[in-house]
Amino acid sequence: MLKFRARLAPAEEAIWIYSDAIGSLSMFFALIEQRQLDSDTISRWTGLHDDNRVDIYEGDTIIFDDTDIGGEIVEGEVIFNTDPCLGEMAWGLWTPTGYMRTDFLGSIKVKNI
Question: With a threshold of 0.70, does the pTM exceed it?
Answer without folding.
Answer: yes
